[in-house]
Amino acid sequence: MNKTEFLIGRSGLGLEDDFYPDDLPEDWCFDYYAAIFKTLSLPIDTDEDLEQIFADIQEDEEEFYLVLTIEESQLGDAIILQKLLSTVQEYANDFILFCEVSDAPSKAIMTILADYKVCFQSSKALKLNLKEVSVANTVLSFNQYPVLYSSQPWDDKKMRNYLESIASVNTKTILICKYAERDALDRMRDTKSLNILLTRALSQVQPLQNLLSEQGYQPILFPSLEIKALANQPLKTEYDALIFISVNAVDYGLSIFKNLKNQPKIFAVGAVTAKKLENYNIKVDDFPKQKASSEALLAMSVIKNLSEQSILIFRGEGGRETLKQGLEKNNSVEYIEVYRRAPCDIAPQHH
After folding, report:
1. Is the dihedral of CA 32, 34, 37, 39 positive or negative?
2. What one-character DSSP code corresponds to residue 350?
3. CA-to-CA distance for 299 and 177, rounded, in angstroms?
4. Closest CA to 239 of 156, 336, 329
5. DSSP at 331
6. What is the pLDDT of residues 169-218, one digit of tens each?
7. Phi, psi (5° rounding) for residue 42?
């Protein structure tokens, strides 16, 4: 019995073949994509908001496989590789690192990658301490799941030929089609005949549910988590600078912001969070324009120049320490955790 399970997806979220509805907000692109397909590849140095994508993946109980691609030139330089991995290392369990290579990575490089899920695609056997399978004149070397990546334009027929060639792998297999037509992807998965399970919090899922319904899909609400406000209060009533690290941090931190007695500088972790603040008529002094992340924020000159400032960071319960660690060398930094993700109580949607 063939046990191969195919997970088919695209490279990048910037699809140009009418995949997204015209009125889809930019910050809903990943949610919309992930509701239909269960794998996606992005460059490891993508401009997409990886922190938010990882948070979305961790929130949802539905399986989703994120593939982060790296160039062979980046893979071969230990310093560059470690720098790239430093931005995602705490999410090592949530992605597969993929690279097309002409030769096997060195032992030193493989040591750096020891704690990561990896897959290498090559025209020859690499003879690494990994599983290997041959598919369509290509050798895949991997330690969990094989990833077959094609940058060639694929139509329905070509995609099916690849599926037939990989059917003997006998494991879950990720197929990334960089230029596959949207209609071909739909036919391969027959998505329009499937019910799509939406596990997002009920308070946030309605727009996505409506958009999927309008596109002919059949969304089913089955919330697994919900966002709950926390009653924490800041230690002071005045700060020199505020930083919001997510849209939820804005929504649930708004009352605290309004109670502050001064007018501090306002920074956001990315464009989506900045837009949310502006929707509340809150002027944002600056935010990373290219990549939404703590690292990108810390790299901005306006943030680097903060010194002897009192800074309040709005965030959810838990989370990364990168931002605080980067700021507290020259400043007084405080967190205010304004929300938490909690298992959803049994609701009518679960019956």
Report:
1. positive
2. G
3. 33
4. 336
5. S
6. 667 788 787 665 555 555 555 544 445 566 666 666 666 676 667 656 66
7. -140, 150
Hey, which residues does 52 pair with through a beta bridge? none
Around Cβ 230, how many Cβ atoms within 10 Å?
Answer: 14
Q: Which residues of 176-210 are buried (b: 16+ CB within 10 A; e: fewer)?
A: bbeebbeebbbebbebeeeebebbbbbebbeebbe
H or E stretch at 132: strand 131-135
Taking CA atoms, 140 is separated from 5, 11, 72, 176, 232, in Å, by 16, 18, 15, 13, 50
Phi, psi of 144 (to 5 degrees): -135, -70
Q: What is the pLDDT of residues 117-174, one digit of tens each?
A: 999 999 999 999 999 988 778 899 999 989 988 776 666 566 666 666 666 666 778 8
Residue given tokens 């605080």 in the structure block: 324
Report the distance separating Cα 79 and Cα 292, nearest Å. 23
Are 72 and 92 in contact by the 8 Å Cβ rule? The answer is no
**What does DSSP say about strands 39-43 and 65-69: parallel, antiparallel, or unpaired?**
parallel
What pLDDT is attached to residue 22?
58
d(CA 221, CA 212): 12
The DSSP element (H or E) to which 29 belongs, if any, is helix 29-36
Q: List, in order, residues 6 or more apart from 242 with CB less than 8 Å away.
A: 257, 260, 264, 265, 266, 267, 311, 312, 313, 314
| Single-letter code of the amino acid located at 90 | E
